Amino acid sequence: MKIGSFNRKSFYTTRFVFFFCFIFSFGTLIELSAQIETAAAAMANDNSGRWVLVIHGGAGGGVKGTMAEEKEKEYLVKLDEALNFGAKMLAKGGTSLDAVEAVIRFMENCPLFNAGVGAVLNEEGRAELDAAIMDGQSGMAGAVAGVSIIKNPISAARRVMEKSNHVLIVGKGAEIFAKKQGVELVEPAYFITPERQQEWEKWKSKKTGNPGNNQAKPVNPTPGQEKHGTVGAVALDQQGNLAAGTSTGGMMGKMVGRVGDTPIIGAGTYANNKTCAVSATGYGEYFMRDVVAYDLSAMMEYSGITIEKAGQIIIMDKLTQQKANGGLIAVDKDGNICLPFNTNAMFRGFAKSSGEHEVAIY
Asked: Residue 169 in 3-state DSSP?
């Protein structure tokens, strides 16, 4: 080859090598950028070992001093056991979804509460149960309503969320689905305890006319009045993900087929990683009309107010003005909590990775 002459093969080889190096470098930059974004996302979700669990066993009932001391202690012990059960899971790095489901299953299996065994009875003397669960990370949710043979409705609700294309399945359809999913079924009589049977017979002896009409208007709790014993849990796990769940038997003497706020996403149950996780308890018709759980999240997202302020506005202002009784529990993405209620009592508790731990009734 003469000096200064053109070598076509060398020229194209050089261009190919240059082009290959460029593509390789560009691909490396893209991969590096993706790795940086992944690391940044991980850092954003890194909760530095922080976790929070809040539970409730229902709002309502008599003023302090009207419940037998032994009974009061029994409730506090069971609330504490439920709280410890879920706290251990979160402390070991468990997910908020798993903790919420496990805690609610625990309470559904405890006859003290109005969920699962020990649920209140409808106008015909049967238990009809509702439950819901929601994942704050994905925005997915599942619920069942009006079921009478599912031992742990909260687990059926989770199956709806994870194993179906739906959010809410009711009645017989929900029971068939639960059976196919391997969820434990029981006889309807399993849910009826002697105490609930006595309460129902007392209610039946006093009712007049249409049972459904007897529940048309909310009444402020008086000493000895039946409480709304819905159970619920909200959690923030070490990965920074939120979850909420709620389970209930509804209201004593409710009309057959009546569904309250518990399984209605946004009314009695809601979770969103951007804001908070909420579980409500009380007079469900008002919680549905006011879309209480979502309202709290929306206040935080659009108005920028704190979770505590939002909870107070909803329970102590909005619902109180409507003479609607109840309360809620909530935890936000930073681990702040609120537990407002406008009734005489709300069975509740919370635990944090910081060591804070409390159960209370009044």
From this structure: strand
The reply to whether 163 and 21 lie within a common domain is no
Q: What would the pLDDT profile of 217-273 be if each residue is shown by its tens digit?
A: 333 343 334 455 799 999 999 999 999 999 999 999 999 999 999 999 999 999 999
Residue 347: per-residue pLDDT: 97
Considering the domain architecture, whether residues 6 and 124 belong to the same structural domain is answered as no
Structure tokens, 45:
């979700």
pLDDT digits (tens, 9 = 90+) for 289-302: 999 999 999 999 99
Q: What torsion do the CA atoms of 10, 14, 17, 22 make, to the nearest 10 degrees?
A: -160
Catalytic site positions: 230
Asked if 152 contacts 170 with a C-beta cutoff of 8 angstroms, the reply is no
| Pair 62, 2 in one domain | no
Whether 106 and 252 map to the same domain: the answer is: yes
- One domain, residues 258 and 348: yes
Whether 196 and 127 share a structural domain: yes
Report CA 64 to chain centroid distance, whole Å: 27
Residues 160 and 223 in one domain: yes
- For residue 232, how many C-alpha atoms fall within 13 Å in the half-sphere facing its CB? 38
Cα angle for residues 232, 234, 235 (degrees, 5° grid):
145
Element (H, E) at 161: helix 153-163
Unique residue bearing structure tokens 């107010």: 305
- DSSP character string of 71-102: HHHHHHHHHHHHHHHHHHHHHTT--HHHHHHH
Domain identity same for 230 and 342? yes
Q: What are the φ and ψ backbone dihedral angles of 72, each rounded to 5 degrees? A: -60, -45
Over the chain, what is the mean pLDDT? 87
CATH number of residue 205's parent domain: 3.60.20.30
pLDDT tens profile 67-122: 999 999 999 999 999 999 999 999 999 999 999 999 999 999 999 999 999 999 99
Nearest to 121 by CA among 259, 251, 219, 260: 251
Full residue range of the structural domain in which residue 241 is found: 49-360
Strand 276-282 and strand 242-248: pairing?
Answer: unpaired
